[in-house]
Design a protein that fits this description.
The chain has 2 domains: 167 residues; 151 residues, Four Helix Bundle (Hemerythrin (Met), subunit A), CATH 1.20.120. 52% of the residues lie in helices and 10% in strands. The strands form 4 sheets. The chain has a 4-stranded mixed beta sheet with strand order 7-2-1-8. It has a two-stranded antiparallel sheet with strand order 3-4. A two-stranded antiparallel ribbon has the order 5-6. Helix 1 packs across helix 3, helix 8 packs antiparallel against helix 10 and helix 12 runs antiparallel to helix 13. The protein is elongated, with a radius of gyration of 24 Å.
């Protein structure tokens, strides 16, 4: 099989739905309302896929959403008909996904038999709950928001809806489009608080000759600043693989990325501190431009009596907290959403574990 020219995954799935899947749906379940989309995990959903992405879990795939009662009535027949009648390839890509031995992971392979396709037939409530731990068609609580990693929120609100015959995907995705205002202020405050807790360590590690430790601290602070910039622009920060790609699309990236890169490349803590001071002041200035709080002095200053240059980022956390009108949100501990205090893939990729971790802290 020759390798076809790369097509962005969302466009491939869109055409696959329109040209190959939709005609068979009309035959398998005529008159049954459905929605079709490509949402959830996968680099193409966030728009970051490349030809490299085709090596697993990428290809002509999508979700077909039916009412729960219609999944029970028609789901198996639709799945079977697609297996029998879908073309073996679409635009040069196999429609058959072979298992890899890793649970749930498939890869495109040619087949002479029935197609093991990746057209998932599900109901919206079950799918949303599996992805997020709750159903956004119903009330979304503060606990729901806090327990959901931003990667998961990005996966559900990005991607593409090709047809919404159920009329449920668009309103649910709109409700998840961004945090309620007071909760946004809280999460921004928590992100500034994270920075305040480590900004002095760049110099302190360096002062005792621990350049490696100083560099590790800077890398953590750079990641926190990148996530903060995305939150400030009302964008859900993705997980580590795509954080830099998402940050590159922010308004601050052209000016800030070279400064952060210089801080990471520095071999002396004085240089790291110098570059980080520039970065802090740039992000602090951007905070003031949002108008969410009264202006906060964006200049760096010594860390109390110690000769380390810091922003004292807790000043921004405090300014944001005072603007939160909802007393229940204002009284939350300044640890934020689950991925602001948990950094473990096996927790963040399982909604029930993320919700348990959040419940233990709120």
């Amino acid at each position: 099989m020759t390798t076809p020219s790369f097509i962005p995954g969302l466009e491939l799935s869109r055409r696959f739905y329109r040209e190959a899947v939709r005609p068979l749906l009309d035959e398998a379940a005529p008159g049954v309302a459905y929605s079709a989309a490509r949402l959830g995990s996968g680099s193409e959903v966030l728009g970051f896929d490349t030809a490299r992405s085709a090596d697993h879990e990428w290809g002509p795939r999508l979700q077909i959403f039916l009412h729960a009662r219609d999944v029970a009535r028609h789901g198996a027949r639709i799945t079977a008909l697609l297996s029998e009648r879908l073309p073996k390839t679409f635009l040069g890509y196999p429609t058959h996904f072979a298992p890899t031995g890793e649970a749930g992971i498939g890869v495109m392979r040619a087949t002479d038999g029935a197609v093991h396709h990746r057209v998932d037939v599900i109901d919206p409530g079950g799918w949303f709950t599996a992805q997020l731990g709750f159903d956004p068609r119903e009330d979304i609580t503060v606990a729901d928001w806090l327990a959901t990693p931003t990667q998961r929120l990005a996966e559900v609100t990005a991607g593409a809806v090709f047809h919404d015959g159920l009329g449920q995907l668009a309103p649910a995705r709109a409700r998840l489009g961004w945090y309620p205002h007071d909760l946004w202020l809280h999460l921004l405050a928590c992100q500034w608080q994270r920075i305040s807790q480590e900004e002095a360590f760049v110099g302190r590690c360096g002062e005792v000759g621990d350049e490696l430790g100083s560099a590790v601290v800077v890398s953590r602070l750079v990641r926190d600043l990148m996530r903060l910039c995305l939150l400030m622009e009302r964008r859900y920060p993705p997980y580590g693989k795509w954080l830099g790609s998402a940050f590159a699309r922010t308004a601050q990236a052209p000016a800030l990325a070279p400064v952060l890169t210089a801080a990471l490349a520095a071999t002396d803590w004085h240089d790291r501190e110098h570059h980080m001071a520039r970065a802090y002041e740039a992000v602090a200035t951007a905070h003031n431009q949002l108008g969410l709080t009264d202006p906060v002095d964006p200049t760096t200053r010594p860390y109390h009596s110690r000769p380390f240059q810091v922003l004292h980022a807790e000043r921004f956390a405090q300014a944001l907290t005072t603007r939160i009108a909802d007393p229940a949100i204002r009284s939350l501990p300044t640890i934020g959403a689950v991925d602001q205090f948990v950094d473990n893939t096996d927790v963040l990729s399982h909604p029930e574990r993320a919700r348990a971790a959040t419940h233990a802290t709120v």
